[in-house]
Amino acid sequence: MNTSQIKHAKTISPALQNQNHDVPTAGHYGAEGTYNKVASRYYFPGMRKYIAEYVKNCPDCNRYKPSNQKPTGLLRTPVYAQRFETLDIDLFGPLPETSSGKKWIFLVEDTSTKWVELFALKEATSVNCAKTLVEEVFLRYGLPRRLISDNGPQFISAVMQQTCNFLGIKQDLIPVYHSQANPSERKNRDLKPRLAILVRDEHDSWEEKLPMIRFALNTAKCETTNHTAAFLQFGRELRTTDDVTHDLRALIDNDNFVDEITPYLKRFSRLTTEIKDHVEQKQDKRKMYYDRRRRQAFYTPGDQVWVTLHPISKSQNKKSRKFMPKREGPYLVITNRSPTTYDIADPAKPDEVLGTYHSSALRAYELPVSRDSGTIVPLRRRGRPKKYSADSSPRRRTSQRGSL
Questions:
Q1: Could you tell me if 91 and 199 lie in one domain?
Q2: According to the model, what pLDDT value does residue 191 have?
Q3: Which pTM does this prediction carry?
Q4: How far apart are CA 280 and CA 182, in angstroms?
Q5: pLDDT, tens digit, for every residue of 351-386?
Q6: Where is this region: Disordered (predicted)?
Q7: Do residues 327 and 206 share a domain?
């Protein structure tokens, strides 16, 4: 930009904005970098605030630049429920096909006791999942009130929805790309290394190892409840080859069974309340540490937001995820399902919900700043600022930075 252009600039034009931030030679720098570039040539009232807003709302910066802020969304802890009142489900696979043709593991966990059931499936279809739930879980432990799952096609299918509706079960789907909302994801992480250790080089032998893995998971002490899932499920620990005494069977064989079992049952009843308090204390502690790395963000129906993408590199198409947009939008907030989850839709089709997203995957969208008018004053590069007399106008006194 030459000197004559600076001298005759009268307004903050789109060309000026574009030249100092948007063009390739400007490089889409942040608020401070853009401000330093503009401030070296111009001055206008509220310049720093205006530039910060302009950069913050730049569509390209929002699409491609990473965020340096804390993720949004504070931790929401679940309410402690009765046994087999809330179940979470997930699929693990596909795995090497076994001799019986199985390729998937269907995992079902009770969120209260942490009791786990593992089922080998030939195909991960909605019919197989629904049939396994009804025949192997519901008819054994009773109907739950709530079923938590991710957005896999097997769980959002009409078959699963109709099954839950018919049986009076509330189906809760976790937000898209937010797997930590599903408790069974942690069990999946525990399942993988344990299976790997047992199968060794015989990768197609995983099915016969499932009973042993299930036993290990259900007899391991849980840090949250401070007890094993087996104890919370049956009121006693499962007997192993190392246990020959001090179990419930020894009490039954005793002549004083009634005298001894009565205080035992009373203790177990009190223990249920103690476990609930222990779980809540653990949840509060976990929430305190989790929220230190998070910040709150609230959206209301009608707000527009950017949605975080999860691109995948495609070498055959010469596409790298490093150069792909990190966000897409704007999208419309339709409903807020909870303080941290929202239903999102395309503004052109507000009746078609695209999915439920966690607030950490959203960023507020604001229209790009437009400042079509407003006086700017070129800076004086050399010499001292002009001195004004007491008769000078207030407008001139506020423009004391001078001109080139």
A1: yes
A2: 85
A3: 0.67
A4: 18
A5: 888 888 888 889 888 876 554 444 555 555 444 445
A6: 1-20, 375-404
A7: no
- Residue range(s) defining the domain that contains residue 267: 241-291
Number of independent structural domains in the chain: 4
Q: Do 224 and 255 have their domain in common?
A: no
Q: What CATH number is attached to the domain comprising 338?
A: 2.30.30
Residue 345 in any domain: the answer is yes
Task: Report pLDDT digits (tens) over 283-336.
Answer: 778 778 877 888 888 899 999 998 888 878 777 777 787 888 888 889 999 988
Q: What is the pLDDT of residues 152-200, one digit of tens each?
A: 899 989 999 999 999 999 998 888 777 777 777 777 788 888 888 888 8
Domain identity same for 246 and 279: yes
Q: Express each pLDDT in 71-86 by its tens digit.
A: 887 777 666 678 889 9
pLDDT band at 8 (very low <50, low <70, confident <90, very high): very low
Judgement on whether residues 212 and 245 belong to the same structural domain of the protein: no
